[in-house]
Amino acid sequence: MVNYKKDDLDQVFSVLADSTRRAIIKELSKGENTVKKMAAAYDMSLPGFTKHLKIMENAGLVSFRKVGKYKYYYLQPKGIDYATEWLNELSSYWKSQLTSLEKYLLENKEEDNDDHDE
Amino acid sequence: MVNYKKDDLDQVFSVLADSTRRAIIKELSKGENTVKKMAAAYDMSLPGFTKHLKIMENAGLVSFRKVGKYKYYYLQPKGIDYATEWLNELSSYWKSQLTSLEKYLLENKEEDNDDHDE
DNA sequence: TTTATAGTTAACCATATGGTTTACTGTAAT
DNA sequence: ATTACAGTAAACCATATGGTTAACTATAAA
């Protein structure tokens, strides 16, 4: 790991790889919010929480506006779009590679009902 | 970090947060391949490379079939779908929350390269 | 049967990561 | 002027992560 440096997509996906940060994103998708208000929902110290916000900001997923002593954070969807695009391109390419049998099997899977919830 | 445990989505996004692993995924989207064949493209020891495959396998993104001394790895798209769904749900919810002005701005962004504030 | 090939395991290392506490700054309220 | 409140900074800690090398197993080829 001599010369390892995170690129943009690394950073975006790293943000998403943490359930606290995914929860923050969901929260912010409802609208902007202040640090303390959001932090209250998490079993974590305030400095711990603001570290997550800093990481998300560096990755370009959130920004904030300052009003007096408050910081209102809001989503910066461009960053998320970046990740979404990578996945969508992948899956469109991948699907174009499938044989018709594979496509048939894919259409008719139905029974893979693991809980995909959080 | 007393009791921190990665859940499914954590694992999937963690896989995606590494450019080597994203490259492996793209490679495998063209079809199955063996370990050494794939490893040749990376400036990394073989054990280092197989560690990545193990991580991807644990996250449910790849599987393999063994043929003699070869392991043929292939994509297991369910895992990736899981990540894609999370992002798509988010963005559909997020878009439904926008005001019509915001939607207008979103449609017509084209060039929004200024930092909002800070 | 010996040798080559494909891949894994184990031990190790440096840095990153997710968290803490304590002390601080800046703004608002009394 | 003092106190409360919102948030940051710094130092620290334990574990995770991405990598290495050396030694191994299993299958295939000579």
From TrEMBL, chains A, B:
UniProt entry tagged with the keyword Thylakoid: no
- Record PROSITE patterns: HTH_ARSR_2
Is DNA-binding found in the keyword set? Answer: yes
Q: What SUPFAM superfamilies does this protein map onto?
A: Winged helix' DNA-binding domain (SSF46785)
Key words of the record = DNA-binding
Could you tell me which InterPro entries the record lists for this protein?
ArsR-like_HTH, HTH_ArsR_DNA-bd_dom, WH-like_DNA-bd_sf, WH_DNA-bd_sf
Q: Where is the HTH arsR-type domain?
A: 1-95
User: One short Pfam family name for this protein?
Assistant: HTH_20
Q: Which SMART domains match?
A: HTH_ARSR
PANTHER family registered for this protein in UniProt: SLL0088 PROTEIN, TRANSCRIPTIONAL REGULATORY PROTEIN
Listed name of the protein:
Winged helix-turn-helix transcriptional regulator
- Recorded source organism is Fictibacillus barbaricus
